[in-house]
Write a structure and sequence with these properties.
Blueprint lengths: L2 H15 L10 E3 L8 E11 L7 E6 L2 E6 L2 E7 L10 E7 L7 E11 L15 E5 L11 E4 L3 E2 L15 E4 L9 E2 L1 E4 L9 E3 L6 E7 L1 E7 L2 E20 L4 E6 L15 E4 L3 E6 L4 E9 L5 E11 L7 E4 L2 H16 L17 H14 L4 H14 L21 H18 L2 H15 L28 H23 L2 H22 E2 L2 E2 L10 H9 L8 H8 L7 H13 L3 H17 L24 H10 L2 E3 L6 E4 L8 E8 L2 E9 L4 E7 L4 E7 L6 E3 L2 E5 L2 E2 L5 E7 L2 E6 L3 E7 L1
Helix pairs in contact: 1-6, 2-12, 2-13, 3-4, 3-5, 3-13, 4-5, 4-6, 5-6, 5-7, 6-7, 7-8, 7-9, 9-10, 9-11, 11-12, 11-13
């Protein structure tokens, strides 16, 4: 075996082995052999320690969530990931509890919240139980532990969360809380044991959370409801302090509780029944929106209303700015939309579904590299692994996953998912993950067949949905998406050293491209032979991205994209990207502003699911954020040329803007760029990271000079040799240079 291939496979195997825990001595314990839905059970143990140690690692698993206290101190507010890493197994958390343990007697209490139902993002195990394993084996879960049901928690009547959500509503009757007798637990055995099976280590950080915060301004009273404003669309757990007589029912929900006011799309809410006197409460169930609503009947005296913000543990570290305030607002709203759609996994929306639809995820992954810090890469890797680990027996891929009540393939979204994996690889250089997914992707792509003319046979899957909207040329999209996905597989096949499959893919790619050009080009644009609708903007854009459309045919495609408006926000990202690829940044920005103006101008801090009046859609939909990536990648002009930013490009495409710039985190470090047009040229500022090579493209007109850090790099006689800058060449109105020495640089053309 070639040494390079051996090393790559070894990296992959090490990545796999690190996820599984195969030495378990603790036991699964519980109270019931079968568990009711929305069940709350507390578990406890006491043990004596002879000394205090700085580091004591513990592993915890349950279905569905838990809260951990040690010596009356809250250690974990929301533990456990939704099941599962694959259709049968369960995640476990690992945490250092050493800082919370004392010399002498220590008490651990864990409250578990068992949802007990399926969802688009959770596989129900069917049983409430707990597993706790510690380096100090005196704390290991076994029959020395005790448990008790928490009678104050109940299932509220009325509207329930829609079937897409595994989460339940929360009901708490404060008068029923108290000292309930601890009971002996049953022993369900040492892992692996059904129904939890193998245990896989949590592969993303614990969730980020704030302290309790005050709302913006004073509550607005509407009847018996107090409406409190959040600073932006956020994931929150509302809290209150009140004085009240016993028996008053309080409701907590947000403005996003019902999508479009439809009870069939309900999200989660909380009920609280008061006891006598002063009391305080914070719901354990996160919800999201721009406003929190407290339904408080007469008799309740409010002491304070607050909320705790939480979410995926990443910083919103990316920045974009330009001379166009509308684009700045759009970028910022996309960043907020992205963040509110991240937690256990990526979402399409955080209220009615909380589900990993891969058409949305492909867009989200691209945004993270410009909007967030590199912690987000762990969530992208989890999403990628989840997709292939849930591959069906017939080799099809489907999402959302993890899934208990869904298994329908959306074929074109699965090809888009492969495109999203390529984005992840280019920005991270994570070869091990690409090798891990390779067998599954190879099996999946084999399901797509090529007919005798050389075109792709349409694959309906479980849900034939290339996009929302009308005038969808599905066959042309099939061919374009297939070529895009096959090119990704070609890259991975070459990484894997699979020369035979690489050669097969090259042949298939060429065959599909030639057939699509032959049979789909009509009147200078592209339409599949049997398609009867208006010429599809999204399908022509994908044909450009796939490399089906040769450059000499770009002008007619550009003319089409300046007028056709069929794509939803999901596919609009690819329409806009095709304009940038065809070197039409002015047209791209003009269309971007035209299509998104309503979202730019509205009152929300996040982006709508649909263009126009958004009837029936959410106001925080992940697939709408594509402009964030495009503004950073093309307008600011920063993109990796080799996986993991060992070589990257800085080539701004002003598109009529007088200035723009961005800052974002990469696996190599923090990159900042700025450009501004001057009276006689362009000025570009950038930094070069250690261990990287940067290609810089500066807009250039014949006869201009180029200075780098105030020294000539190009003059009328040609390249002016220097040690820190190498000249590459001229192409399409740009002059290209190479930088390898770290530091800050200023390029000027005049």
């Amino acid at each position: 075996m070639p040494i390079k291939k051996y090393i790559l496979l070894l990296l992959c195997l090490l990545s796999l082995s690190a996820t599984a825990q195969d030495k378990w001595t603790a036991h699964w314990i519980g109270l019931d052999t079968s568990s009711a839905s929305n069940q709350w059970v507390a578990y406890t143990v006491k043990a004596i320690r002879s000394s205090k140690q700085r580091r004591v690692m513990a592993r915890i698993a349950t279905d569905s969530k838990y809260m951990l206290w040690i010596n009356s101190r809250l250690v974990v507010r929301e533990g456990q990931l939704k099941r599962g890493p694959n259709p049968g197994d369960t995640y476990f958390d690992e945490i250092d509890i050493g800082p919370f343990l004392e010399k002498g007697e220590n008490e651990i209490i864990i409250n578990t919240w068992f949802w007990g139902k399926e969802g688009f993002a959770h596989k129900n195990s069917g049983r409430n139980a707990l597993l706790f394993q510690c380096e100090d084996e005196a704390f290991n879960s076994r029959t020395s532990w005790k448990a008790r049901r928490l009678p104050e928690y109940y299932q509220p009547d009325g509207i329930q969360p829609n079937y897409r959500l595994a989460e339940t509503n929360v009901g708490v009757d404060a008068s029923k809380a108290g000292n309930i007798v601890w009971q002996p637990v049953s022993d369900y055995g040492i892992p692996p044991v059904v129904p939890w099976n193998q245990l896989v280590k949590r592969d993303i950080p614990f969730f980020r959370e704030s302290g309790l915060k005050n709302y913006i301004g004073e509550p607005v009273k509407k009847g018996d409801t107090l409406v409190c404003r959040l600073p932006y669309n956020a994931q929150v757990t509302p809290a209150f302090k009140i004085s009240a007589p016993a028996g008053i029912k309080i409701q907590l929900l947000t403005d996003n509780y019902l999508t479009a006011g439809n009870p069939e799309l309900a999200s989660v809410r909380t009920e609280y029944i008061t006891r006598e006197g002063e009391q305080e409460f914070e719901t354990p169930a996160w919800m999201n929106g721009h406003f929190v609503k407290y339904v408080m009947p007469a008799g309740v005296k409010v002491r304070s209303l607050q909320y705790r913000e939480s979410g995926y543990n990443t910083e919103l570290s990316g920045v974009f700015h330009s001379s166009d305030s509308a684009l700045n607002i759009l970028w910022k709203k996309a960043q907020r939309t992205l963040y509110v759609n991240m937690r256990d996994n990526y979402f399409d929306c955080p209220d009615r579904e909380r589900a990993l639809w891969w058409g949305d995820v492909a867009t989200e992954i691209g945004e993270t590299f410009y909007a967030l810090d590199t912690n987000a890469n762990q969530l992208s890797r989890k999403a990628i692994r989840n997709l292939v680990d849930w591959q069906a027996a017939d080799s099809s891929l489907y999402s959302p996953i993890p899934a208990g009540n869904w298994n329908r393939e959306l074929p074109q979204q699965m090809l888009a998912a492969i495109h999203g994996m390529d984005t992840y690889y280019r920005y991270t250089g994570d070869t091990a993950t690409m090798l891990y997914v390779y067998p599954a992707l190879k099996r999946y792509l084999s399901l797509w067949k090529i007919e005798e003319r050389g075109m792709i046979i349409h694959r309906k899957g479980g849900w034939d949905l290339p996009d929302w909207g009308v005038n969808i040329d599905a066959s042309l999209l099939d061919n374009a998406w297939y070529v895009v996905a096959a090119k990704v597989l070609l890259t991975i096949a070459e990484l894997h050293g699979d020369k035979a499959y690489a050669a097969q893919l090259k042949k298939q790619i060429e065959q599909v491209i030639l057939a699509t050009r032959k049979y789909c080009r009509q009147n200078d644009v592209y339409r599949s032979p049997d398609y009867k609708g208006e010429t599809d903007d999204r399908a022509n854009a994908m044909a450009v991205i796939a490399g089906i459309v040769p450059p000499e045919e770009y002008p007619e495609i550009v003319r089409l994209l300046k007028t056709a408006r069929h794509a939803s926000p999901y596919m609009e990202k690819y329409v806009l990207e095709s304009l940038f690829l065809m070197q039409q940044p002015e047209a791209a920005l003009e269309r971007m502003k035209s299509r998104y103006q309503g979202m730019i101008d509205n009152e929300y801090t996040t982006l709508n699911e649909l263009f126009g009046d958004n009837k029936g859609g959410t106001n925080n939909h992940a697939w709408s954020g594509g402009p964030l990536t495009l503004l950073s990648q093309y307008v600011s002009g920063v993109t990796p040329l080799k996986p993991g930013y060992s070589r990257y490009l800085v080539m701004p495409a002003p598109g009529g803007l007088s200035a723009a710039g961005s800052t974002h985190e990469t696996v190599k470090g923090r990159i900042t760029t700025r450009f501004a047009t001057t009276s006689d040229g362009v000025k570009i500022e950038l930094n070069v990271l250690p261990g990287t090579e940067v290609f810089v493209g500066i807009p250039y007109k014949e006869g201009q000079k180029v200075l780098v850090n105030d020294k000539e790099a190009w003059v009328s006689g040609g390249y002016a040799p220097r040690n820190d800058v190498s000249w590459i060449g001229k192409n399409n109105g740009y002059m290209f240079f190479s930088l390898t020495q770290k530091g800050n640089y200023i390029f000027q053309s005049f």
